Amino acid sequence: MKVKELDLVFNGTGDTKGMVFIQELKSDNAYMYKVTEDNIKSHYEVFMRIEVFNYDFDNMRQLNTKKVTYPTTRVFGKTAWCYNNIDKAIAKFKYLSSDR
Q: Which of 37, 42, 58, 69 is least enclosed, having the fewest CB within 10 Å?
């Protein structure tokens, strides 16, 4: 089954409006994005790869295609983490990418 991957670069919406997300690292199990706000401040978001089925809301049915999802605010600390330090972000990415 084909899975739609996350965009390499995208602009935030809603709570993240004004932020730019740039994919720095990707593995079979994890992602790391650099997040820049107002072209000044930046931090790193590291998270587990989670695939979900697409859904057709007009017809209220699950489709037979999947996509990788970017984590929502409520999952940070569970399946996603935020770091100001790139070395700590890379260490977390490596841990999530390993077979553990």
A: 58
